[in-house]
Amino acid sequence: MTKPLKQIHLAAHFPGVNNTTVWSDPEAGSHIEFSSFAHFARTAERAKFDFLFLAEGLRLREQGGKIYDLDVVGRPDTFTILAALAAVTDRLGLTGTINSTFNEPYEVARQFASLDHLSGGRSAWNVVTSWDAFTGENFRRGGFLPQDERYSRAKEFLTTATELFDSWHGDEIVADQETGVFLRDAKAGAFVHTGQHFDIHGQFNVPRSPQGRPVIFQAGDSEEGREFAASAADAIFSRYATLKDGQAFYTDVKNRLAKYGRGHRDLLILPAATFVLGDTDAEAEELAREVRRQQVSGATALKHLEFVWNRDLSSYDPEGPLPDIDPDVSENHISKGRAQVRMYRDPLAIAREWRELAAANNWSIRDLVINTGNRQTFVGSPETVARTINDYVQADASDGFILVPHITPTGLDTFADKVVPLLQEQGVFRTEYEGTTLRDHLGLAHPDHARGERAAS
């Protein structure tokens, strides 16, 4: 029997100003004005995407004690943007990253439940932890939690928030005889939670939302992160965008679901993916090379090298050879608030590898950063990109992709106009929304329905 074609899930990430975007391009717009977010969201909805995704930045990045102004320089509050976008969209899901290390379950649950009501059931929460003390300096708790405790807190945070979401489940609506106001009975919203990280009780004051509770996303790639996603998330962001690596990650995480009583459809794997389109594959390849050079200026290349060398390299020529000196492996790092610091756990080994690559290819510092940094995931004509995306999904390397354009807010337009129709013609992507909530778009059961199905079984 022929295996039925999987339906592709597509979403869009508004990346802000960072090394993915070419923010200096004349076509780039504001990364803080609402008109940019509105255009981006409307394009995603016009293309029938599942959702829009916003990341969260809790502190400006620094390097050498100064604000890193070649990268993210600020963004409005995630909840504020998503609530505003709910008013200018009708079906598009609205997903936000909210940190579990520096927030409280009651506050976050109330905000997401409110957003779910305001949007008619389109909210989603990307649950993350914070890894660095630098960000923690903005908060009372600081950065004291080691990785295992951060995930312990995150799990209990999500459990507690779920208890709050579910505290209105199954209660009847009654009328107050004196005021005439319709209220739920006195037990509605009541909660008690006692645990290692949270000891709270009271009344949750937001009624059951249209989705029952928001869709839950998770982005960790560690062993703890994969287990967390398998046990509690509805979807997981992945950084594995190649076919082989994507298939390995997909198989690993999906195989963890059974021990939590979940099936393969209960958790979606959605890698982030960049793209460059051209009329032909050759044109797209040439444009992709130009985009990478725009993303990595000489100044950016030196700053990137400083992540590994942990030294001030401003005196070096970015078009010249790599430094002869070795990286400084001290605990005090020159770069603050960047994920790349964690990626390069053995800077001496990375430096040796990069010197060998540079010597073999006659690369300058800038050439090296361009060629070892993130490359576009999908490059080619609309036909090539549509075919490749479908091949990846049908080969179980993912369930779809979260697209990150290099130009905002208009960088999604061409994909919506030229690639989406090809996927629709192949019968692997919707032509219209069939439901109203994000759970409908993602094919996820309503929590109340899932509870009933488990009880019946």
TrEMBL record:
Luciferase-like domain segment(s): 24-395
Superkingdom assignment: Bacteria
Family annotation (Gene3D superfamilies): Luciferase-like domain (3.20.20.30)
GO MF terms held by the record: monooxygenase activity; oxidoreductase activity, acting on paired donors, with incorporation or reduction of molecular oxygen
Coiled-coil regions, chain positions: none
Xref: CDD domains: Nitrilotriacetate_monoxgenase (cd01095)
Flavoprotein in keyword set: yes
Pfam families (alphabetical): Bac_luciferase
Binding site for FMN: 97, 151, 222
Keyword terms: Flavoprotein, FMN, Monooxygenase, Oxidoreductase
Family under the similarity heading: Belongs to the NtaA/SnaA/DszA monooxygenase family.
Name by which UniProt lists this protein: LLM class flavin-dependent oxidoreductase
